[in-house]
Here is the input.
Amino acid sequence: MPVRILFENNGGKVIFSHLIHHRDYKIDCATCHHDKKQKPLSQDDTALHCGSCHPNEFNEEFIASHMDSFPDETYCVRCHHTEFAEVIFNHEEHKEYADDCSDCHHGKEIEPTPQRCSHCHKSHDINGLISMRQAGHQSCANCHEDMFETGLSSCKSCHVQVDMTKYEGDYTSCNSCHEAEARELVLPRMNAFHDQCLSCHEKEGAGPYGPDDCNKCHISR
Here is the structure.
């Protein structure tokens, strides 16, 4: 069993204490390790090291081979959070609050007849047109200023959650929503990764998770 493992990281190298997590925190091997050829590991099984499946870079080669690295699809949600589908939106109810269609839609100089946002705005910014997500959020923010100023803990306030036990589609990449800089209601990429790690540490009451604990994981390059 390795005592410490060094992870390369853009934010600074991370020293991970394997011994503390397993011996002192009493975390079972199967919590972190898994084997694609067997059932989830028990204490008596031999644990594969992370690098046997997970490379240092999440590139196209990793994505192609990654899908065969796990016993079944239930493992996907260890890294991917819940996918979200259509917006919970009642058009008729919103008519009661709008003075006219242009409160949400563009004026007649852009679209003489109100259309669906997706007719022009696609999944990504194209030819000067902002993405559907950004266009929708900006339109909603015109009225829901309090919601956008406070921020949301999850997309489920507005979007339908997908039942991940029956999900067969592609998973949204981290970068699709979590960009390097804070944007709209979505956590920036670094915060999203930190949230996954630190929330577990805080829940267990062990390991670094406070604002002054950066040097317990990251070291200067």
User: Anything to note?
Assistant: The chain has eight helices and five strands. The chain has a mean pLDDT of 76. The longest helix spans residues 189-204.
